[in-house]
Design the sequence.
């Protein structure tokens, strides 16, 4: 049998890098879409260069997406590219809508025009549940987004469902709850904390400024979550799935675990800074992934505490290597 081919948008992001590794392990030919930049920064995928093929394209540019579908003729497309940082979506709402909402139609239109048999995965988000209508959240829970990002993701979700129902495209939406790793961007709260703890431990920083410590999230490990994306595209019928651990933790617990891991008391170092409060907050998210467990046979393998300790250790190592000029 010939190798399956996948195209990943957002390959330079956290999830893109783990998904590329996973698909290579499954024997895929992997193409990654990157946008043109004056500085090429591929830190998360440097180790994969040579095994994957990078191709230029942009979610803002319809023609680039059509050309890529024609050139590559992928079996599967994973649409992970987005403006994914919630606070930026208030600062740049129109751009967020262009990338995170309209960008999804552009990829789907390219598939519709070039080859409707291409399978499509959309990176939907628990942020769509926002001010939650029920707990825990399932595939049937109504959406109530609380940020321009969440609103844009609701659009991406429903346009995916609509192209499945209108054109018979094998299109799936994965409603993924927060997932983290040592490759998480430094602006997200888990990595901000683990990087901050490592800096404080190494004497490079003396405080950590955070916003709302009461917010609760269902945090999982990114390496587990990319397997669910792949599983969704291997089923007889396309469908939508919640991917979560079913356990919620507060930002305060996150901070406590991370500082304790290096033998420090967080209360001496954490300062509350109103600059990190959001215009509208999502207080508590907790997912019910029973459908994914049953249909996909998927389950999370890394606990919250294990993941935070893994991230602190990785940041300590990274900063120590930087010191040695490594
Ligand atoms: P991430 O690290 O922020 O990566 C985002 C990716 O999108 C980067 O590769 C970025 O490329 C690319 N991108 C942004 N705008 C683009 C454009 N106009 N054209 C082409 N590429 C563009 O995000 P992530 O954490 O890996 O998340 C992956 C996806 O899952 C996102 O859609 C996110 O919204 C969604 N999601 C994430 C989570 C989570 O907890 N991580 C949960 C639910 C859903 P550059 O390197 O060029 O900036
Ligand atoms: O915030 C609180 C903040 O930015 C988590 C994205 O991947 O997951 C992510 O969105 C919570 C919020 O992630 C700080 O108020 C407190 O309640 O790490 P975050 P997020 O907004 O949940 C979803 C599923 C996505 O789809 C998104 O793409 O932590 N918090 N203090 C803080 N958050 C940040 N960033 N920084 C703080 O100082």
Sequence:
């Amino acid at each position: 049998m010939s190798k399956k081919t996948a195209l990943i948008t957002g390959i330079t992001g956290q999830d893109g890098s783990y998904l590329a590794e996973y698909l290579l392990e499954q024997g895929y030919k992997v193409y990654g879409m990157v946008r043109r930049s004056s500085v090429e920064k591929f830190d998360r995928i440097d180790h994969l260069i040579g095994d994957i093929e990078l191709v230029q394209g942009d979610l803002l540019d319809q023609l680039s997406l059509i050309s890529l579908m024609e050139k590559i003729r992928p079996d599967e497309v994973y649409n992970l590219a987005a403006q994914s940082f919630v606070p930026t979506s208030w600062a740049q709402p129109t751009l967020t809508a262009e990338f995170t909402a309209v960008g999804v139609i552009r990829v789907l239109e390219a598939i519709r025009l070039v080859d409707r048999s291409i399978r499509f995965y959309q990176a939907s988000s628990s942020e769509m549940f926002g001010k939650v209508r029920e707990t825990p959240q399932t595939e049937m829970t109504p959406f109530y987004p609380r940020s321009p990002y969440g609103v844009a993701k609701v659009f991406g979700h429903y346009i995916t469902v609509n192209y499945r129902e209108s054109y018979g495209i094998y299109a799936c939406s994965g409603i993924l709850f927060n997932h983290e790793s040592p490759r998480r961007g430094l602006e997200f709260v888990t990595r901000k904390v683990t990087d901050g703890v490592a800096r404080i431990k190494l004497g490079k920083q003396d405080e950590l400024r955070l916003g709302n410590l009461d917010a609760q999230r269902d945090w999982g490990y990114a390496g587990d979550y990319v397997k669910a994306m792949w599983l969704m595209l291997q089923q007889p019928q396309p469908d939508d799935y919640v991917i979560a651990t079913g356990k919620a933790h507060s930002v305060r617990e996150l901070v406590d675990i991370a500082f304790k891991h290096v033998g420090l008391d967080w209360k001496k170092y954490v300062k509350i800074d109103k600059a990190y409060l959001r215009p509208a907050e999502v207080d508590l998210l907790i997912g019910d992934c029973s459908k994914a467990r049953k249909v996909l046979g998927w389950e999370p393998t890394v606990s919250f505490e294990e993941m935070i300790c893994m991230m602190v250790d990785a940041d300590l190592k990274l900063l120590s290597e930087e010191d040695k000029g490594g």
User: Anything to note?
Assistant: DSSP finds ten helices and 13 strands in the chain. The mean pLDDT is 97. Residues 84, 86, 125-127, 177-178, 187-189, 192, 210-212, 215, 217, 251, 276, 278, 281-282 surround F7E (ligand 2) (CB under 6 Å). The CA atoms of residues 213 and 251 lie 5 Å apart.
